[in-house]
Amino acid sequence: MATQNNNKPRVVIVGAGFGGLEATRALAGADVGITLVDKTNHHLFQPLLYQVATAGLSAPAIAAPVRHLFRTQANVTSLLGDVTAIDARARTVLLKDGGVLPYDHLIVAAGATHSYFGHDEWAAHAPGLKTLEDAFEIRRRILLAFEQAERETDAERRAAWLTFVVIGGGPTGVEMAGTLAEIARDTLPGEFRHIDPAKARVLLVEGGPRVLAAMPESLSESARRQLEKLGVEVRTGARVTGIDGSGVEVSVPAPAGGSGDSSSNYRIGTHCVVWAAGVAASPLGRHLAEATACPLDRAGRLLVEPDLGLPGHPEISVVGDLAAAKSHAPGQEPKPVPGVSPAAKQMGRHAATMVLCRIAGLPTEPFRYRDYGNLATIGRNSAVVDIASPLGPLRFTGFPAWLFWLFAHIYFLIGFRNRIVVLIDWASAYWSKQRYARVVSDIEPR
Length: 446
What we know:
FAD/NAD(P)-binding domain, alpha/beta, six-stranded mixed β-sheet, 25 strands
């Protein structure tokens, strides 16, 4: 498959997520031929994917066609294809349909997938949230749970349909749990005749000692209080040991110094579970490791060089969730780069710059991550913010943090139209407390 019919250096970028998008943009105007390949035809703004899953936004509001994004960047060819392998010796990218993409320089930004910590059988009962298809499936399960409860006459079985469990206390889990509570208490009351949606239970189960563990403890505790104010039951220090079609098994270790059984076990009856507990590198990482003899970390990420290239293969750079990268700030010990969208963007830009350095015969530079902070929304008028400033960390919660979160996400959305649509939808939802993307096409429970 030929993609560039000239003598310009051929740059292939795998993945149109945050890392791949920024790498492609950083090469605008460069005298190279770029092939951007992804197995979907759109760039997805993942931080707001949970809003699609909870019927707050429609899919087009947080997605943009890749071809449209690069319609004016003449050195880019966009291809729809599923990359299955990379031949490092022949310098080719192999596609599932048999296509072959030759490259002189390769940037791999294939992202991450769900990790069930060795229990892949849980995936059928607890979908994660990485793609639009995931969001549609979660939205279907949430809405159908209320529908099934409306028809159920047995009190115990009805209670199970009205119980929602979110596993994982990171930003996605916190945001999902808070929004589910708002749906039950603010959006659905008055629409059913045999159930009271406001009596639905929403549980957030976290194996660690606190939610939002990446944030300072004060903000973590504030997030917990805000969740509980919304009606979410927050259970920390609770390890999930089993998931099936009718519930979740949980184990809680006994307090230190206690006597008797080392842990207590209990079961939560539910038909709707959302997995937000772990991520793993794309399977492409393992194929690339085999092709280049590059070592992997325990999460399946490639151990890249300081400049994000692969050992022995400087023509290949890996960015985003697929890279076990470290930040090399002057005068400081290297620190692991977190798996967040700002890091993926910065890595994408750096990898593109290093490609230009290699083409020009210039030395490359170590990657340096600039941490601008973290933020997470809990629900209506509730959020936590921890951002860096010249005067030190700036931390605040509640309504001001919610406003900051809202405008920050609108600012970073791709495309002017999407920003306007999301702003209007959020304004409407704020005043009406309604969610108008409550559409499902498959009513049969799976």
